[in-house]
């Protein structure tokens, strides 16, 4: 019972590895969304608040 | 997270996840992918429905399975799993439509107290970033794990 309680409290979930999903890693499943993200990064750039912190 | 969520399966690299939504419209397979962007360590979070027969995915499908909260909680759980493997990753997320982005914002707001202790969250507004605040309309979100960065 204690173990079940501990498992329920875990924030990082237990993930079952399914090798059949490996094939998706080789392809871009949502190309439009990735393009949109890259456009945003080009236009808006990285957040100064984080970049400054990372470099300090 | 204590909220109900679906069991997750993943590729070896923990960059593609799958789960099955259950509701009045039946069992719907969902895929989440953390996509490398043009910038190092910045990933785009994308997810959508998977056609079980063809394996094709659709991020615009409206499944209406009346489980959007459980689906969002599952996506958040995948963020925990992904950043556990890739602690330096920054994750960008935006919806395929404005209403989807709003749904993500509401999801973040719902889990904010819990998520804020583990992650830093920024909102994309105009052409800038700001610390995520409730009830503000954003175009997208950037998340990273707290720790050595924060």
Structural features, described:
The complex is a heterodimer of chains A (56) and B (150). Chain A is mainly α and 56 residues long. Chain A has one domain. Helices cover 59% and strands 5% of the residues of chain A. Chain A has four helices and one strand, in the order H-E-H-H-H. Chain A has helices spanning 2-9, 22-25, 31-43, 48-55; one strand at 15-17. The radius of gyration of chain A is 19 Å and the shape is flat. Chain B is an alpha+beta fold and 150 residues long. Chain B is built from two helices and nine strands, in the order E-E-E-E-E-H-E-H-E-E-E. In chain B, strands 1, 2, 3, 4, 5, 6, 7, 8 and 9 form a nine-stranded mixed sheet that branches. Chain B is globular, with a radius of gyration of 15 Å. Strand 1 of chain A pairs parallel with strand 1 (8-10) of chain B.
Beta strands of chain A, count: 1
Please, how many helices of chain A?
A: 4
C-alpha Rg of chain A, in Å?
19 Å
- Note the run of SSEs of chain B as H and E: EEEEEHEHEEE
* Extended strand count of chain B: 9
Largest interface comes to: A-B, 35 and 52 residues
